[in-house]
Amino acid sequence: MEFAKQQPTVKAPADWFTGDVWFDVIHAGQEPSRMRANLVRFSPGARTHWHSHALGQALYVVSGTALIGTRDGTVFEAHPGETVTCPPGEEHWHGAVSDRFMEHIAMWEGLGDGIPETEWREPVTDQQYNAPRTTSRA
User: Fold this and answer.
1) What is the mean predicted confidence (pLDDT) over 57-76?
2) Which among 87, 21, 35, 30 is positioned nearest to 57, based on CA atoms?
3) pTM here?
4) 3-state class (DSSP) for residue 127
């Protein structure tokens, strides 16, 4: 057993995010582990660009209200203590509501051998971000 060395907080790159976002690496597994986990802090209105994960992603909301959007135009609201899963290859985005900070733990698996596990795409438009929201869990 060992304690992982804590890494400094990193400002998220502007080519993957709109607005101010910071993350702390919780875990970046070394082979044979593929586990990845980051604590991600979004300023009000900040969000990821469209993206997908080869092996899917789980988002655990720590604080604030998270918005998670899908290509069909659905925007879900998720609240502290809720976990939202995005299946492998599903294009999605996530971020904070316009008037509150939001923190979530993002969990996904790496592919190893330097193969990208996340495919980043274009920014989410204001129209997509401001679409009607649902809290339906069905």
Assistant:
1) 97
2) 87
3) 0.92
4) helix
